[in-house]
Amino acid sequence: MPRWRRDRSLLWRSLLVAAVSAPALLLLHLHGPELPSSSTTRASPLWGELSAAAGAEAADGGGASSSGATCATVEWMGEEAAGRGSPEAASLRVRELIRRHFLLHGAARVRELPAYEFCKQGFVLGKASEAGFGNEMYKILTAAALSIMLNRSLIIGQTRGLYPFGEYISYTNHSFTIGEVKHLWRKNHCARTNGRDLNMRVDNFEHPTETNVLCSDWNSWKDPIIWFDGVTDAVGIQFFLKNVHPKMKTAATSLFGSPGSLHARPNTFGELMQVIISPSRTVEKAVQWALKGSSPDIVLHMRMMTNRPVRARKAAVSCIKRAIEICHLKGIPRVALISDTPGFVKDIKQDISEFAEVIYFDHKGFSKNFGLDTTGNDKQILRSNFPKIKSFPVQPMDFRSRDWGSAPRWAAFVDFFLASQARYAVVTGAHRRVGTTYAQLIAALAAANRFGAYPFAHTVSILYGRILYEDRI
Fold it and tell me: Of the given ranges (322-331, 355-364, 430-439), which has the lowest mean pLDDT?
């Protein structure tokens, strides 16, 4: 197995993605009792519950793998390489690191620097399109992380004057735009007085033979702007943990933790999201309408790409029941459902309603409740507050309908911020042909929202069926 594939298993421990023969299931456990450590070869206490379901599905022709079902905690699966520590403490340390960075290198301070000091300032560009939200958001988070590692300011790129997903997301005022940096560069006469043209150095992670992520000291680069392009997941920026230059490796370790200490890896991307993004006012109001006064205990996300397999429902329900058991939830737990396949939500709601209160965002009910017209163009609909809103769209762009689902695109952002309010766990499943960076970011933001409010317990992942890949994000 190539070394870079092995390295991926050492990424931060707040999420384990397990893709299986039909669904991929994972559980981010945010609050609950400590689980005993064990070897990966020992039987899991969760085995009986899911192996029985696997056997039943195999008998029904469900296509269960001959390798059988497995259940394991993250601790069991990574114990040999892991040290001991507190991921919450590590995350709170990173939270303070991020705060101090933007206090020093954020736009509010840097734009007021004297000309000579401003012209010495460096920047990192994060530029995204409006394709898949998870992949594109990782581009911005990667740039933010690199700006911290290199002590540079953050630029969030715009396209025709608009931020990516700007109708649904509000971005931090700690960042610059390219337009503002160009203006300040001219205003402070950086090219004439300091001899620094505003040029950009691009490193493309998608081209392994060209990227300098492993072999160059990026601190020595004098270019005013650096763009680390092509990073669409949590992996690229963490390659700096293997950089040959000690300063680069130390900076990466400070932000992401040591690869050899999985139990004390910080939730870096969740902490960055807390600072960089927030829902627009309209999306926030829609989230509050869906929550009906309190946060869900558990969130189930299913990215099924119009599929509605029975075995995915059974596995997801088993995961939720196990999460409720581990968390020792009292009374009737609240479970929020989100999916790109609305029909799947209706199917599984019946199963979960037997033991939990179910909530989900009904975009049609929301539009009707506020007297909104459900026709129009997705780009022209969302406004900063409800009195200005004239309509919401029913359908997303046609070429994205299979990827994003049949609901309007703005509903996916309501779902995202709704799910990030999970108090205890995020369970997610995906069709076997797709990963789901969308769910990774939900889990990371949910964990960041809870650090400091609840004690962090162990991450528990229930693996159902044959494991095709596993990845700690």
Answer: 430-439
Ranking 105-119, 203-217, 345-359, 364-378 by mean pLDDT, the lowest is 364-378
In a domain, 319, yes or no: yes
- Give the lowest-confidence range in 124-128, 355-359, 375-379, 440-444: 375-379
> Per-residue pLDDT tens for 7-30?
433 333 333 333 222 333 444 444
- Alpha-carbon Rg for the chain, nearest whole angstrom, is 23
Shared domain check, 225 and 309: no
Task: Describe the crossing of helices 310-327 and 47-59 by its angle, rounded to 10 degrees.
Answer: 170
* Domain-ending residue, one of 246, 277, 308: 277
191, containing H or E segment: helix 190-193
Number of independent structural domains in the chain: 2
C-alpha distances in angstroms, 116 versus 81, 120, 174, 192, 240?
48, 7, 21, 12, 31
Query: Which domain range does residue 194 map to?
Result: 87-277
pTM: 0.76
Q: Report whether 364 contacts 410 (CB < 8 A).
A: no
Residue 18 lies in a domain: no
Contact 267, 451 (CB under 8 A): yes
